[in-house]
Specification:
With 122 residues, the protein is an alpha+beta fold. It contains 1 helix and 7 strands. Helices cover 16% and strands 37% of the residues. 24% of the residues are buried.
Length: 122
């Protein structure tokens, strides 16, 4: 009986990894920094860009036994894209460790700030 349980647990772990893993070759953005949106370039403000679209948000990986601080993202209408410029923030969200969350980056967004999260095209 114990052998069957071990096999089921192993099969479940493999299936979960396949479902939760990003597609092979998918670009992953993160885990910290400000990304300009490719449709709204602003000279001098960003050196890295992300195209508009729907992205899966994941908490940045941690190295055991430590756990990274809770992650979050900010969508911005202009630079600077930071919590210290609340007038520029048009959306925000948290990464949840136990379930996937998503963010839609619109073509009208200027930037997205990532704090301990990674984004993968959904």
């Amino acid at each position: 009986m114990n052998v069957n349980v071990a096999v089921l647990v192993a099969a479940g772990a493999v299936a979960s990894a396949c479902v939760l893993a990003p597609p092979a070759g998918a670009t992953v953005y993160g885990s910290n920094g400000v990304f300009g949106v490719t449709t709204q370039p602003r000279d001098g403000w960003a050196t890295t860009f992300i195209p508009p679209g729907r992205y899966r948000v994941d908490q940045s990986p941690s190295m055991q036994p430590y756990q990274s601080p809770p992650g979050f993202w900010l969508r911005c209408r202009d630079f600077p894209c930071a919590g210290t410029s609340p007038g520029n923030i048009i959306g925000n969200g948290d990464a949840l460790r136990d379930q996937p969350t998503f963010v839609d980056i619109l073509p009208t967004d200027v930037a997205i700030a990532l704090h301990n999260v990674t984004l993968t095209p959904a």
